[in-house]
UniProtKB/TrEMBL annotation:
Main location: cytoplasm
Species classification: Eukaryota, Fungi, Dikarya, Basidiomycota, Wallemiomycotina
Biased composition annotated in UniProt, kind: Basic and acidic residues: 419-431, 440-449, 647-664, 673-682, 690-717
Zinc finger intervals, CR-type: 114-197
One term of GO molecular function: unfolded protein binding
Domain (CR-type) ranges: 114-197
InterPro entries xrefs: DnaJ_C, DnaJ_domain, DnaJ_domain_CS, HSP40/DnaJ_pept-bd, HSP_DnaJ_Cys-rich_dom, HSP_DnaJ_Cys-rich_dom_sf, J_dom_sf, RAC_head
The organism's place on the tree of life at top rank: Eukaryota
Protein name in UniProt: DnaJ-domain-containing protein
Residue ranges crossing the lipid bilayer per the database entry: none
């Protein structure tokens, strides 16, 4: 027996269609009962009852639980199921339109520079006639009787043995809408129509292949859901010049043999933004075949900086018999000697074999046929034990140990002693006049850490503290050799030291690696702490040439583009004028090669975070530029101080002045007396000094007067502003001069306030203050209004305000 019979009671019997139709026609149809206001609601309930009882699933639910959607099921069971199965009774999510994904072809130039595109696209839009319901105009949707307007019904699902849960599913009767439209009210067209819209797509600089650009809400429209998004997937076209990998670019260039051996300077490509890229390889730098050069910050744009451009060099070899014998001999003197192992020994039998030019593409190699037997491929020969006998140098060492009864450790100690003896003999045989002397080694120097090599003095490590930048490459190698012979771990072990402590030995190797490389050595020399880069003060005391001469000689060695010996020197007191002017002109255009790259922070090449690497490189570049700027400013200050203190320039200025005076006197027919001219010059100088002092005094007084006037004007402006506010407040307190009990309209208030501003701005500050005093002195509103009216008439009479401008006070 069912727990609830409301729907059966509505249909009177077992919900047969015949009784349902009879009830509609005879009893409850609104058209049959126009005077009954409850007929429409009753007709709706009967319709819902028929929909529930005519469907077997909903009728079974109604018979078991009392309602078609199980709305009267016990809450304790719902709470229990929801706690275990995450609210299974909640409705399914709202429908969502599917995004449209469109492939969009772009070039590398578009990704590098950015691009804006306007295009038309066809999409589905909701029908405006039916608003997506599918019904005719004015059609009223009816609540779905199966789901009671919820859009979903519960269906039973077995989750396990003896465990059944009801899951929400879209209602099949209304397709999840919760309402239905009768067939006779349905619209003849679709709920959505095809439409063409004009869209804008912006490809930003730095986007990559496969990246998606989402235009929110620009896709197809679906009734009851948010519009879909239009997604563009970037597809990069193949470029004729560049290859791209992530944010890096790569190109191939061809070099001649001469360019590969002697360096080059050439334009390698036109970049994606139209600029030309030029690469300069210094003379003496050899490019190996298929060597790759990395151009930093020349790749694709990043959020911070750029990727890299990799240049793979292909060396084109000369073809045919292009070299003569004398050219070959000259080239042999320049190139390294061939490997002596491949040289023909005297008395060795040789055979001349003719050769022919061939191509590997024509070479055919016959491979053995693979075994078809599975047994043959897996069978292995049996293991064989054989005795190994040392041969060559290992055999000689083994025989020596066996004959003398020495162990491996004893044999190694003997070898170290022999090597040390041989090295000592080589050191004694070195010429004494090599310029590399012995320097004491402090404990701090011997405790140097090779990992922190940028904090070390490379010249002190090799014992070249006295020579420093003057040391020749041969002296550097000789000093390195002496240090190696002295601090090799084997030598330390022979002297009873710790052979495992090779820190200083590594420092010596690092010092040679840096100082033997011209580029690295210049980087170190650029920041050598022994450099005295202090400049004399402009108010120094002493001999100008003794103070500034050594400073300019010291700075000249940093000259870039001009050999240090050709850089103009300061000279002496008797230097001619043209030489002095040439000196200062050259130093005002001085260019230093100090680059300060030694201070760069190390970039962790093993890091996978490319942004961190790019940021470090960018920071290093910025710091180098700042240090270079400071060094240029230091040199400029040096030249400025020297020019200001140079006694020769003072003498030249005095000579120029005397020449001008003599020229003037000659034009006037005056014969100048040197003594008198000197006295006149001194008197004139004193007069000029007095005039300057008087002018400075006047300037100070004018400045003080201006400051006082400024303060007075500021005070007057503040007082005027206060007076304006006070006058407006007086008018406001007087109710804008309205009759007692009446209220001023907004239009009257606005007009009066505007005219008060006009009056206050037209009057002089003193007149405005006087008007305020007059208004404060009386309590009669008519008198106050008369005072304001008189002020307005005065402005009209003097012509400051045109007649007819005042409407409230005249």
């Amino acid at each position: 027996m069912v727990a609830e019979t409301e729907l059966y009671d509505l249909l009177v019997s077992n919900a047969s269609q015949l009784i349902y139709v009879r009830l509609i026609v005879n009893n409850c149809h609104p058209d049959k009962n126009p005077n009954d206001p409850a007929a429409s609601d009753k007709f709706q309930k009967i319709s819902n009852a028929y929909e529930v009882l005519s469907d077997e699933t909903s009728r079974e639910s109604y018979d078991n639980f009392g309602t078609a959607d199980n709305s009267h099921a016990g809450p304790p069971m719902d709470d229990f199921m929801n706690s275990f199965f995450f609210d299974l009774n909640r409705p399914p999510p709202a429908p969502k339109a599917k995004d449209q994904v469109v492939d969009f072809d772009v070039t590398l130039e578009d990704l590098y520079n950015g691009k804006s595109v306007h295009f038309a696209i066809e999409k589905d839009v909701i029908c405006k006639l039916c608003s997506g319901s599918g019904g005719k105009k004015g059609a009223k949707p009816q609540t779905c009787g199966r789901c009671s307007g919820k859009g979903h019904v519960l269906s039973s699902r077995q989750l396990g043995p003896g465990l059944i849960a009801q899951m929400p599913t879209p209602c099949p009767a209304c397709e999840g809408e919760g309402v239905k439209i009768k067939d006779k009210s349905k619209y003849v067209l679709r709920t959505t129509l095809s439409s063409i819209s004009l869209e804008f797509l912006g490809v930003e600089s730095g986007m990559v292949d496969g990246q998606r650009i989402r235009l929110q809400g620009e896709g197809d429209e679906v009734p009851g859901a948010k519009p879909a998004s239009l997604v563009f997937r970037l597809r990069t076209k193949k470029h004729d010049t560049f290859r791209v990998s992530g944010y890096d670019l790569a190109i191939n260039i061809k070099l001649t043999l001469l360019e590969a051996l002697s360096g080059f300077e050439k334009i390698i490509c036109h970049h994606l933004d139209g600029r030309t890229v030029k690469v300069s390889v210094p003379q003496g730098r050899v490019i190996q075949p298929n060597e790759t050069l990395c151009l930093r910050d020349q790749g694709m744009p990043l959020s911070r900086g750029f990727g890299d451009l990799y240049v793979q060099c292909e060396v084109e070899m000369p073809s045919g018999y292009w070299m003569k014998l004398q050219d070959r001999n000259a080239l042999a003197k320049l190139l390294p000697n061939p490997d002596p192992k491949n040289a023909i020994q005297e008395g060795e039998k040789t055979e001349n074999v003719k050769y022919e030019t061939s191509s590997m593409s024509n070479l055919e190699i016959s491979l053995p046929v693979a075994s078809t037997s599975s047994e043959g491929a897996k069978s292995l020969s049996k293991p064989v034990t054989r005795k190994l006998v040392p041969v060559g140098g290992a055999y000689a060492a083994h025989a020596s140990r066996q004959a003398n009864g020495r162990s491996f450790d004893e044999d190694d100690a003997l070898i170290r002693a022999e090597n040390e003896k041989r090295a000592e003999e080589e050191r004694r045989n070195q010429p004494e006049d090599d310029g590399v002397g012995e320097e004491p080694e402090s404990k701090e120097l011997l405790a140097s850490d090779p990992k922190n090599y940028k904090a070390l003095d490379m010249y002190a490590i090799l014992g070249l503290s006295n020579l420093r930048y003057k040391a020749t490459p041969d002296q550097i190698r000789l000093a390195h050799k002496k240090k190696i012979l002295r601090h090799h771990p084997d030598k330390k072990a022979g002297r009873g030291g710790d052979a495992n402590d090779d820190s200083f030995f590594k420092c010596v190797a690092k010092a040679l690696e840096i100082l033997d490389n011209p580029e690295r050595r210049r980087q170190f020399d650029s920041i050598d702490e022994s450099i005295d880069d202090k400049i004399p003060d402009v108010k120094f005391k002493g001999d100008f040439f003794a103070v500034y001469g050594p400073v300019f000689d010291r700075e000249a060695r940093f000259s870039d583009g001009v050999h240090p010996d050709q850089v103009p020197r300061l000279g002496g007191a008797d230097a001619p004028r043209d030489q002095v002017e040439e000196f200062y002109n050259a130093w005002y255009n001085f260019n230093s090669w100090r680059s300060f790259e030694w201070y760069d922070k190390e970039v962790n090449e093993g890091s996978e975070n490319r942004d961190d690497k790019r940021y470090t490189e960018k920071k290093n570049k910025s710091d180098r530029a700042q240090r270079k700027k400071e060094d240029n400013a230091r040199v400029r200050t040096l030249v400025d101080n020297a020019l200001a203190a140079d006694p020769r320039m003072k003498k030249f200025r005095q000579e120029d002045k005397a020449a001008r005076e003599a020229k003037k006197n000659k034009a006037k027919g005056i014969v100048s007396d040197p003594k008198k001219a000197q006295e006149e010059a001194a008197l004139k100088a004193a007069q000029e000094a007095a005039a300057k002092e008087e002018q400075a005094k006047k300037d100070a007084e004018n400045k003080a007067s201006k400051a006082t006037d400024k303060k007075a004007k500021e005070a007057a402006r503040k007082n005027l502003s206060k007076a304006k506010k006070a006058i407006k407040q007086i008018v406001t307190d007087a109710n804008y001069f309205q009759a007692p009990g009446s209220t001023a309209s907004a239009n009257v208030i606005e007009n009066q306030l505007n005219e008060l501003d006009l009056i206050a701005n037209g009057l002089e500050p003193e007149e405005t203050s006087e008007l305020k005093k007059t208004l404060d002195a009386t309590k009669d509103n008519e008198a106050k209004r008369a005072a304001i009216t008189n002020a307005a008439k005065k402005l009209v009479e003097v012509g400051k305000v045109e007649n007819g401008r005042f409407q409230q006070y005249i």
